[in-house]
Each structure stands twice: as C-alpha cells, then as structure tokens.
Amino acid sequence: MSDDDPLLPVMLYIHGGAHLNGANKLHDGSLLAQKDVVVVITNYRLGALGFFSTGDSSAPGNYGLLDQLEAMKWVRANIRAFGGSPDRVTIFGESSGAASTSLHLLSPLSRDYFQQAILQSGASTSPWAVLLPEYEPRKYTEELAKQMGCSTQSSQELVDCLREKTAEEVGSADVGKPPAMLTVAWAPVVDGPGGFLPARPWDLVDRGQFNKRVRLMAGCTTDERSGDLASIPGVENGVSRDLVIDLLVDFVERYPRNKGFISDALLHGYTDYEAIDDPVTNRDNYIQFLSDYRYVAPVEKVLLTMSAGGVATYKYSFGYQPIPDTYPEWRGVPHAAELRFLFNMPSRFVNGAPTAADLDIADKMITMWTNFARTGNPTPSPIDGVTWQPFTNETRAHLMIDSPLTNGQFLQTRRMELWNDVIRNMAETDTCDNGGVASNGNTVSVVSAMVMIVSILLLAT
User: Fold this and answer.
1) What domains lie within the chain, and their CATH numbers?
2) In what residue span(s) does the Carboxylesterase type B domain sit (predicted)?
3) pLDDT over 70 at 445, yes or no
C-alpha cells in the first residue's frame, strides 16, 4: 500500500471457548478481509492462567481480559502499518468472546480503544460471564494452590509458588465443580475500583456506567442450547412434559431464594397449553428456555439498556440452517453455528463444501458485519431489498438472518421480561410469612411476589 491509500476499518475478534479453550488459529478472517477491512484475531490467556484470582492486590485476576486490552493498545499503536485506521476499530466476539467484548463496554480501562462492538451469543449480563463475589473466586485459587503443593496462608506466597510451576501443571489442575451459573471455575471477576471491572456487570449496566460513544450490534442463534439435549435417548422425537418438569426442578436449585415461585413462573412461561403433551413442542420449548437463560435474555438486557442510554443498536437472530447440515434437523441452529459463515470453515459443512445457498448467506452476513465496521450501519444500502432497522426500546426491532432476510419486532419480548424483570426480582427477594426484604432493603410482601407471578402467567398465555 502507498501513503495515499485510505486507511481501512479494523475488526478485532475475541474468540470464545468458555474462558478455557480456543485460539486465533481456529478462525480464518480472509473472507472478512476481502471486504476491505483489516482483521485482527487475538490470543489471550485462558483457564487458570487467564483468570485465577486471590481477591486482593497479589492476584486481582482478569488477566485474559487485560491481554485483550493489550491487543487493542497494539492496534492503536501499530495498525496503520497494516493499512488499518486506529480510529475505526470494531471489537467483536462469540460466546465467552462476546461476554469479554461486552465487559470491555463496561470497563473504564478499555473505552478509548474501539468505536463499535458486536456481541454474538454472549453478554456481560450472561449468568456465566463473571465469577461473582458470592461464588468465592479465591477458593478455586486456593484449591489450585493445594494441588500444586503451595501454601495458602499468604496471597503473595501462594502466587509466588504458582509462578514456579509450569503452564502445563497449572492448566491441567481440576479445581472442582463450579457454581451452577457457570460452565467452568475460571472466569472474569469483579476486581473493584481502579481495576478492569469495578462492580457487578448488572449493576454497571443498570446505572448506565457503560461506553456511550459506541455503536452496538448483537444477537444469538435461534436454538443456542439444543446441544444440551443431545444425550437424551429419542430426543429427535421430542421429550415428555414430565421430563421437562424434572429438568426444571433441577435447574431452579441454583437459586437460593423462592425456588417454588421461580419454578412456577418458568414452567408456565415455557408451556404451550395448546400442545401441552406434544413431545416435539416440549423439547423445543425447553431448548428455548435454556437458550433464553444463558444467551438471549442477557443480550436483550444489554441492548435495551444501551439503547436507552443513547447508543445506536442493532439486533439480529441467526436462523439459517443449511440443507443438508452437519447437525441433525432437530438441533435447529445451535450455539456457534453462524461462525462457519464468517470464518471460512468448510469442514463444518456436509462433505466440506458449502452449497450455493450457504455461500449466499455467508456473503450477506459478511457484508453486513463489515458494513457495520465501516459505517456503523449494517445496511447503508438495502440487501435484497431489506434494510436492517435499528433496535429501540419502543420497537425492539431485529433482523432474522435466514433465506430470505426479514425484519421483525418484539421477538419473544414476554420471555425476555420474564428473565430480566420477574425472575431476577424473585431471585433477589427474601420472602417469609410476614413479607420479604429485597436486596436493596425494600420490603416485598408475599402478596406482591404472587402478583408478579400472576402477571407473568397472564403475559405468557
């Protein structure tokens, strides 16, 4: 390139993998780069090496996130040499990479290094995104230290001892089952004022303490958690309502308060009373239940709050399923299914060869992603006659990425409100015979709690 060539937009990708797995070499950014953007795909520390914490200054944690921040700083300092503009940077990620991207929207340390963000199936508000203080992050670090033969009496001694161990030793340690809200024990933590994450993500989002100088695009696949049911015998033919109820009873054990109220609200919210005994309907509703909990409702929360804060936002739902597909038909469009269309992954298509229809969806998706990086608008001109409408709290507009592309509004809004308002309030409210006390100290009567349940049941029917 010559000095006279215009600088190109930059897209910095943060891979997923539950904060435990993944690497940049698994993602080929060449298809994106063909649309005149500079693609940067970063590695960062994972597992214990990236996220162990003593809860104090000896090892506050969040090293993986700080690695991502260093990649942003590197882009700011060096990307001109590669033809990229340091002033037009879009960070994007999928799954835990999306949660990381969303946390950068909250961190005061990251705000000067990007102008736009894309969240694919993850958010800072996802229940697995952060190892919250009540989950006691230090206890996992102490368990790691014990397995490594290190003293836990002093944080600094513990850290100094761990530094003498090999990466293989630290990375292979099994520190036990994480809290039910999380997938693995190693995750970002709240490291307090002056740190990367000064407070709980939900609190920062609710208080409007996020980067308001950005544009945001976010969404999920239509069947995120279908893989969770893959081990159930005969699942291709559906599941019984009794099994769904049993699974739901196990699920609500993660909540310390109001299990009965929460169970009733969720059961009614995800029951189709016109097909209550239909196994396929029961299976599909349970997939949506898990998907909404882990991904869809948390992403909606971020979109709603940032839109209300003046941020230009766009929402998508990715619903395209190749015919034929490597996934069985009942799986629909599961978690990470969209990545093969962005990152040139032929092995994820039947016979290693995407069809003409698959390539058409890939081209549309890549065009919209790179348009967003270039202009802040995924469709500055219509694609197949469709202009992606911005998401607002009044319209809750979304684009269904399928063949054909279609605009829609209010996608499962009642279920989003069930998770983000009703279940959240129930989970944070202590109830008793004479009334309860919410986490903010306000008294909540049992009658009020029941009104919340009745209200959501009316909405869900």
Assistant:
1) 8-228+278-410 (3.40.50.1820)
2) 6-419
3) no
